[in-house]
Structure formats: structure tokens, C-alpha cells
Specification:
The complex is a heterodimer of chains A (313) and B (84). The model of chain A has no long low-confidence stretch (mean pLDDT 90). The longest helix of chain A has 32 residues, at 148-179. Chain A has a single domain, classed as P-loop containing nucleotide triphosphate hydrolases (Rossmann fold, 3-Layer(aba) Sandwich), CATH 3.40.50. In chain A, strands 3-4-2-5-1-6-7-8 form an eight-stranded mixed β-sheet, sandwiched between helices. Chain A has ten helices and eight strands. Helices cover 54% and strands 15% of the residues of chain A. Chain B has one domain (22-84). Chain B is built from three helices and no strands. In chain B, helix 1 (3-38) packs across helix 3. The longest helix of chain B has 36 residues, at 3-38. The mean pLDDT of chain B is 83. Classes of the chains: A alpha/beta (313), B mainly alpha (84). At the A-B interface, helix 3, helix 4, helix 5, helix 6 and helix 7 of A face helix 1, helix 2 and helix 3 of B.
């Protein structure tokens, strides 16, 4: 099979790869294909340097906006999410404490939220909520991710956080065992709920039926190596690889000696890709005459990604 | 006060009384460890879970107060973690 068609039936898809290989374009095309096949799709960009709005030629923000029928877009912004998170926490504790404790707590909360890493963490929390909650409005959520390293960290985060929260619970548990009842301890209850959410997030992320990761690359040395490493790490984390997209393949016949030389080199890399990634589904996407922005060009690409007639391997 | 309750307290004291100090100390130490785990960022150690602890901070304020008093400090020793 040389098409990503069957991935449309998943609930969550990630598109990842080295910077500049066409992740956003492929994720957008896939979202378009799925929406035209009747799925209600949410396309989410997690790259701090968002470009989804450039492809669809309209502004997209931190809340879902309708791009096309059946297709909504969302650009997650770390700073916005961390502010929203903090506002939620403050709202949540407002009714529970007296003014003195609240004032001190707000200061602590603001301080903690300004620490390095808080934005990344808030981003992660939002992604978790999207994956966990299974919004009724959408059948499929497609994540257009930041370049590989950043994304792999994000995929690993539920596991890491779970270990942290579990260690904290254990410490609290040991203490409460001596002094208090833990069924009513608000700290323990909060930690328990976090743990529950993280477990659910991870379970969905690792479910081969629900979730898959698509790696986009071009037929060049560095992207091949990065893809190989990403596959290794994703498999180690237990994430299902849905397929590989080999983007921007040059046309075979060209009178131009420069292009012919590039094409010959590309063939060597394409052979290498076939050899090294034998067990994975691969889709080859030819270099287009013009770059992709706007719905018409995206539609063409959507066709290439999801129909069998694609340049096959 | 009922006699039954007096008798119960008497036996409870006889059985556990001498352990109580030990247990209280142990609980205090465990509590300190928990506080440290929650406030790691403030003493300069990176903690990936900081954001998930924000909503338990108000519950910990009082314990933090008890801690610095127990350590013999009238006021919070950490400038960036204000207390009384």
C-alpha cells in the first residue's frame, strides 16, 4: 500500500520531521483529504513558528476556527496557554481560601508560571487535554508538530510527568500515613487526578488503533538520518508509525544537466530509503511546479497522499 | 466526658504514648521532603511538574510557615517565596 488513506480512520495523527521538509503542507493536505472524506477534522499546529495560517491564507488563533466545511484549525501558543492555565488555577482556588492566603498563593503561582519551561508545559497540557477529552465535535485531530527533537520530547512527557507525580504522591502518602486521612487530603486528591489524566493521555497516545505518527522527509542525507533516529525513538516510546512521506521528488526526465544530476543523486537516496525503512508504509510526493498555499494546490497534494495512483515505490 | 472514652484514651496513651514523639518527628521530616519536592523551582532545581502543583500551593502555605518556624526562622528565608 502506498497511500495514507487508511490513516483517516484514526482519531489522532501526528506529522513530524526535520525542519523545512513540508510537515505543515502534508498535515494540511491530509486534514483536507479527511474532511472531504466526511470526517470532522481539527488541524492543530504546535510549532511555535506557526505556518498553518499561511497555507490556508487566513488568521488562525489559540481557539479553533472554521477553515473549510468539516475542517477547523487551531494554533497552540505556549504563552497564551500558560496564562490561561494560571487564570484557571486562580479561578479554581478563589472560593476555597481566605484573602490572605489567596494573596500569597497568587504571588507564588505567578512566580512559578514565569519559570523557564512553564510555557512548554502548558503547551503539553493543552495537547493532552485535546487528546484525552475526545471533543465530540471532531472525528480526527491532526497535529502539525514542531521539528523532530521538540516533538519527541513532548511524546515522552506523559511518561516523565507520571513518574514525577507518582513520586510526589508517594511522598505525600508516607506523610499522611502518620498524621491524616488521605482520602480527604486535597493535595492527594489533586495529585491523584493529575495522575489519572496523564495515564489516560498516555494510553491514547500509545493505542495503535487510535493514534499514529507520520514522518515527513525529503530524499537527502540529513533528513534520512533524522527520520531513522525518530523512528527508533518513537518505537522505543511505543508510538505507532503510520507511514513515511518522501516529499518533493524531482521529475525523472529533464533536459537540464543540473536537474539530471540532482535526480541521479536522489535515486540513490530513494533506494536507501526503501532499503532502510522496509517495514514502513512510504508515500512519494513529486515536486510540484509551484509551492503550496491556498486550497486548490492543497487539494492536489491531498489527492497524491490518499490515492493509490501516487508515484509508487 | 464518658468513662468509656477515658478508658480508651488511657490505653491508647499507654500503648502509643512513647512512640508519638518519634512519629511526629518522622511526619515532620516527610513533610519537609514533600515541600522540597513541590518548591524545587524556587530553590533552583528544575521540576517538570511545577505547573501541575500550582493548585496545591495554597494548601502548602501553612505547612511552609510551620517549617520555617520549626527551623528557628521567624520569617521566610526564601526571598522569592514570601510568607508571614
Amino acid at each position: 500500500m502506498t497511500t495514507l488513506r487508511r490513516l483517516i480512520d484514526k482519531r489522532v495523527l501526528f506529522f513530524g520531521g526535520k525542519g523545512g521538509v513540508g510537515k505543515t503542507t502534508c498535515a494540511s493536505a491530509m486534514a483536507l483529504a479527511a474532511s472531504q472524506a466526511g470526517k470532522r477534522v481539527l488541524l492543530v499546529s504546535t510549532d511555535p513558528a506557526h505556518s498553518t495560517s499561511d497555507i490556508f491564507e487566513r488568521p488562525i488563533g489559540p481557539e479553533p476556527v472554521e477553515l473549510l466545511p468539516n475542517l477547523q484549525g487551531l494554533e497552540i501558543d505556549g504563552a497564551f496557554e500558560s496564562q490561561r492555565y494560571v487564570a484557571n488555577v486562580k479561578e479554581h482556588i478563589k472560593g476555597l481560601f481566605g484573602p490572605h492566603i489567596l494573596k500569597e498563593s497568587y504571588r507564588q503561582i505567578d512566580l512559578a508560571a514565569s519559570m523557564p519551561g512553564a510555557e512548554e508545559m502548558a503547551l503539553f497540557d493543552r495537547i493532552g487535554a485535546l487528546i484525552r477529552d475526545e471533543d465530540d465535535r471532531f472525528d480526527l485531530i491532526i497535529f502539525d508538530t514542531a521539528p523532530t527533537g521538540h516533538t519527541l520530547r513532548l511524546i515522552r512527557m506523559p511518561e516523565l510527568m507520571e513518574a514525577w507525580i507518582r513520586a510526589l504522591s508517594r511522598s505525600r502518602h508516607a506523610m499522611l500515613g502518620i498524621e491524616q486521612d488521605e482520602a480527604t487530603d486535597p493535595v492527594m486528591l489533586s495529585l491523584g487526578q493529575r495522575l489519572e489524566h496523564l495515564r489516560e493521555f498516555r494510553a491514547r497516545l500509545l493505542s495503535p488503533r487510535r493514534c499514529a505518527f507520520v514522518l515527513v522527509m525529503v530524499a537527502e542525507r540529513l533528513p534520512i538520518e533524522e527520520t531513522a533516529r525518530a523512528i527508533e525513538q518513537l518505537q522505543e516510546a511505543g508510538v505507532t508509525i503510520g507511514g513515511l512521506v518522501v516529499n518533493r521528488i524531482l521529475p525523472a526526465t529533464s533536459p537540464d544537466p543540473f536537474l539530471r544530476a540532482r535526480h541521479d543523486q536522489e535515486q540513490i537516496y530513494l533506494d536507501e530509503i526503501d532499503r532502510r525503512f522496509t517495514s514502513h508504509l512510504k508515500v512519494r510526493v513529486p515536486q510540484l511546479a509551484s509551492d503550496v498555499h491556498g486550497v486548490p494546490t492543497l487539494e492536489h497534494l491531498a489527492g497524491v497522499l490518499t490515492t493509490e495512483k501516487a508515484l509508487s515505490s | 466526658m464518658s468513662i468509656g472514652r477515658n478508658i480508651r484514651d488511657f490505653f491508647h496513651g499507654a500503648a502509643y504514648g512513647r512512640y508519638e514523639r518519634e512519629l511526629r518527628l518522622q511526619a515532620a521530616e516527610l513533610n519537609d521532603l514533600f515541600l522540597l519536592l513541590c518548591y524545587m523551582e524556587i530553590v533552583g532545581l528544575p521540576n517538570p511538574a511545577t505547573l501541575y502543583l500550582l493548585d496545591v500551593y495554597p494548601y502548602l502555605l501553612e505547612q511552609f510557615h510551620l517549617w520555617h518556624r520549626r527551623m528557628g526562622m521567624d520569617r521566610s528565608p526564601l526571598g522569592n517565596l514570601p510568607c508571614c
